[in-house]
Amino acid sequence: MSTGDTTSPAARGTGLLVALGTAVFGYALMQTVVVPALGLLTRELRTTPAWSAWILSAFLLSSAVLTPLLGRLGDMHGRRRVMMGVLVAYAVGMAGAAAAQNIGQLIAARVVQGAALAVVPLSMAILREALPRERLPFAMGLVSGIVGAGGGAGLVVGGLLADHLSWRYLFVVGALLASLSLAMVWRYVPARHHDTSGRLDVLGAVLLGLGLVAVLLALTQGPSWGWTSAPVLGLFVLGVLLAAVLVLVERGRAHALIDVGELTDRPMLATHAAALLFGAGSYFFYLGMPLFAQQKPGADGAGFGASVTVAGLLMLPGMLAIVPAGAAVGRISASLGSRGPLACGFALFAVGAALLALGHASYWQHLVFYAVVGAGSGLVMGALPKLIADIVPLARTGTANGINNIARTVGSVIGSQLAAAVIASTTSGRTAVPDSAFSLLFWLGAVAAVAGVAVSPLAVRRALPPVPHAQEEARA
């Protein structure tokens, strides 16, 4: 914004929130919008289910590799500048996907789109540097809630577009959102001077990227290659070895991408563990609920035989519950402490998951019980960036949130593959997924949430003397 801008601080803060909310919503929407359309894409592009699965996997792998690098670039050279570059790349990736003529072109476009995950940690860093401390819990919780709502909305929007229009409109909508976000970020996000004396840790980025690719590739290909096959076991071993080398290399570097001290700090480890558990738990519902809704009732009555659109709409109350729950993080923190929202969120998630495991034969049960899961999700998503802001200095906010989003991405892959394994193991020789498989998926979601409750007390705010926001910003 220009220095002559006479807009009031409150109006600028509102514009900033709307701009960042639009950007993260666009990313989150496209993370899941293709899920309801995977079968359609397989048919339209004349490919196999194994190849169409890479439409999701390529996006997740690219996100995990690029996010910490882009977060670090934002910390060094300005979050607004890097975010605008990410949004340009995202829009190009969307346009490329909309014009794709075969599965290879679509997968390549999804790789480019993966850069968009960086808008989440960049947004958290921008909020921390641009807003007064007292507004941060609400703002971070709101933006985090929008991320969750966007993921749920993707299932609804994807179903509507897949049912009534061409699959290409999935990506046309994404391109329009990316373009709108770019214009709003340019208008409302302030440009700030950053210290560019640090160096980009290319070696650390390469080691982290290769390690993540090895582990995530093993997780995504495990069901088709075999979990005990030499390629899968070799990839897991390679991932562990690269992680060990990364720790050794980063320990002695002045401008390390990964701060080893942060990773050995109990509160930071707890927030990353919580993100991983949340990512895994969420995908049991993302895959299980639409499948149950669309399946024609089998011998045991499992399924509604609903359309893709109706399957998505059944998750709408849960999606809508995420945003107000995320925005309530600040008030809950003031009453229960900074750990309160995380523990309460996981507890609500566990209750909703258990209720769905016990009863999911009626539409109302999906609508009501998943709304409880959604409320818990909003609290967890709003609590994580606030806990990170309590732990790391302002100058590393983007990088630390990027690592946290990677943990959630890895959890998402673990959850999706566990869900696929449960479904595959119970459908051998069957025409429909049995009701027991869906119950098991929802119980697994509850188990992940209970583990999250256990982790929450470890995410303790480090005892630091209060620092005025302006002084913190100047010091960073």
From TrEMBL:
Native source organism of the sequence: Microbispora siamensis
Main subcellular location: membrane
Residue spans crossing the bilayer: 16-39, 51-70, 82-101, 107-127, 139-161, 167-188, 200-219, 225-249, 269-292, 304-330, 342-361, 367-388, 409-428, 440-460
Location of the protein in the cell: Cell membrane
Protein's UniProt name: MFS transporter
Keyword Transmembrane helix included in the entry's annotation: yes
Sequence ranges assigned to domain Major facilitator superfamily (MFS) profile in this UniProt record: 16-464
Record has Transmembrane as a keyword: yes
Membrane topology per record: Multi-pass membrane protein
